Amino acid sequence: MSRKISMKQAINEALDLEMRRDPTVIVMGEDIVGGTGAQGEDDAWGGVLGVTKGLYAKHGDRLMDTPLSESAYIGAAIGAAACGLRPVAELMFLDFMGVCFDQIFNQAAKFRYMFGGKAETPVVIRGMVGAGFRAAAQHSQMLTPLFTHIPGLKVVCPSNAYDAKGLLIQSIRDNDPVIFCEHKNLYGLECEVPAESYAIPFGEANVLRDGDDVTIVSYGLTVHRAMEAAAALAKDGTEAEVIDLRTLSPIDWDTIVESVERTGRLVVVDEAHPRCNLATDIAAFVGQNAFGALKAGIQMVTAPHTPVPFSPSLEDLYVPSADSIASAVRRTLSPKGASPRIAA
Amino acid sequence: MAQNPFPLGKDELLKAYRTMRTIREFEERLHVDFAKGDIPGFVHLYAGEEACATGIMMHLNDNDRIASTHRGHGHCIAKGVDVHAMMAEIYGRSTGACRGKGGSMHIADLSKGMMGANGILGAGAPLICGAALAAKVRGDRGVGITFVGDGASNQGTFLESLNLAAVWNLPVVFVVENNGYAESTAMEWAVSCDSYVDRATGFGMPGVTVDGTDFFAVYEAAGEIIRRARDGGGPALLECNMVRFYGHFEGDAQTYRAKGELEAIRASRDCLTILSERLVEAGVIGRDELQAVDREVNALIEDAVRAAKAAPLPVAEDLLRDVYVSY
Where is the Dehydrogenase E1 component domain (chain B) (predicted)? Predict the structure, then answer.
């Protein structure tokens, strides 16, 4: 049975289904039950934006509120994973990674290699990413490149409710540590989602739109901007192929390269800052592996090299827009694929 | 034979002595071989601190987990990690406990409940909270022990974990191995409170301070708080006051120490001498029996070094192996 639900509901449903299926799945985080030890109702919040609402009633103490101690409880989730549980730890805003990153990149990510292949750390660390929520510089970042840089971590960033459910189920079943990035501005977006359980394999991009003129690669919120741009370009007779990466580590190089070899043009869209991000990574890979197929210089559309600003007038300029993506596509179509230098 | 005044039978006493002697010999040998240039990388020796690891680990089984530190060889040996596999690891060989991928600072053996030495100070505390949580969820009566030095006792991870363990009522024992120095910085200067018992009290758990050079003092204090944790009584902190016979790392000139300090602690605070004298004086174990253990241990370490040196190094394919379970 399929029905329309939001990405927030899809994430809740994935957690519920996996907790039913596997008794070793536990969920922890700040306020994910909400109200523990307080006078009001149990399950008061279900997370600051209500993503885990209702799960406590179904699964009781397998959902655990934590003190505001990200290093301690993220580390505890990792330690529990190394001892046979499958914890899902919510970091609320992945911007908070700064206070607990050691446990993730020096501990969880390295156990398997550092211990000679003898450890498994099946932990999922999920939380909100992305700008557009008027949440300012410390609650709005797209820090995905920090995570993809680290060997041992897997990085997931869905663009819709269907993918979020299937990818979160896969993340929980996966035997490696996974950083699961949820764009807060997509929480309310609905699409058709089957009620039953399903897993979407990692490393398989989704081609959302076929086209022979240009390839647009993105992930998360900006996938939707890319689709808007593609619709606008189609009116001018330009058919863009739009690829939603879904997982950033592992990444589906084959689908990207196959597409570029057909279209000869590439625009990479990344909500992260412009240096050393997914866009530069993909541009470099294509430059190295499909140079002969390129008919124009690769274009990158990213957030600027600034913190995320607060004022709506500025934040709206910060996130890559459909217009900026369409402009980038047009640059690849100009006679020499001219790529004017953009001031950093 | 005199009546045994100790809380352990003769076999267990010999086991404790053997463990402490094995750690000592392992570390003394590394000290010599490191100076010769045989061993790559950083090595932090546990010599002088053997009573602490041994007195605690005598209460544990393979189902109990420990999270160790950069100074982890003693914890590993006391937790039952194979000495040959450890030596091979320190020599960077493919037969090592971590197939040569970890080295001295990352020796682990999860099958023995040893969750790793750790190059990040204080990082073991959150991890052991997770191990203890897993034991609690499973209801298997397992406990978790994490070690920090006096230096890492100032890490936020450690302090956060004290609170988390108390709030979640986890079966964790936080062991502060207070050897007086955070690398070179004096504990008296760097730790703001007078007593770790006060710090434990501040986090709502019992704290105990013992003479960490006295095996029996450690054994008895650890036994009580480990039993309490196992029975669901919650976390506790154990401070062991002890001495470090070598520098922070091998090659450390130790210019921060007082003149004559090392000679003095070797003469008066050697936990191995203290234990063996008590055993012999009580008439429970003969000096010849201890010497027989010494000979066995010497042969074991000699063989471990020989085997490590003869073992193959990891090969090029190993570089890319075991980053992920699947990718």
Answer: 19-314
Per the structure, the count of domains in chain B is 1
Interchain contact, A79 vs B164, CB within 8 Å? no
**Residue A116 and residue B168: Cβ atoms within 8 Å?**
no
Read off the pLDDT of residues B284-307 as tens digits, 9 standing for 90 and up.
Answer: 999 999 999 999 999 999 999 999
**Which residues of chain B are within 8 Å of residue A85 when distances are taken between CB atoms?**
130, 133-134, 137
Please tell me if residue A175 touches chain B, with a CB cutoff of 8 Å. yes
Q: Rounded to an integer, what distance in angstroms lies between the CA atom of residue A64 and that of residue A58? A: 13
Q: Are A290 and A261 in contact (CB under 8 A)?
A: yes
Rounded to whole angstroms, the Cα distance separating B225 from B236 reads 6
Domain extent, residue A99, equals: 2-194
B130 closest CB neighbour out of A78, A174, A203 = A78
CATH number at residue B269: 3.40.50.970
Residues near A15 by Cβ (< 8 Å), separated by ≥ 6?
Answer: A25, A27, A52, A55, A88, A168, A172
Strand pairing category for B236-241 and B172-178: parallel
Q: Chain B: residue nearest A252 by CA?
A: B327
* A114–B116 CB contact, under 8 Å: yes
In total, how many domains does chain A have?
A: 2
Contact of B213 with B270, CB cutoff 8 Å: yes
Report chain A (344 residues): mean pLDDT per 10 consecutive residues.
Answer: 95 98 97 88 84 94 96 98 98 96 98 97 98 95 98 98 98 98 98 98 98 98 98 97 98 98 98 98 98 97 98 96 98 72 47
What is chain B's alpha carbon radius of gyration, rounded to the nearest angstrom? 19
CA distance A184 to chain B (A): 27
Interhelix angle for A70-82 vs B156-167, to 10°? 70
Q: Which residues 260-279 of A are in CB contact (within 8 Å) with B? A: none
* List of chain A residues whose C-beta atoms are within 8 Å of the C-beta of residue B108: 111, 114-115, 118-119
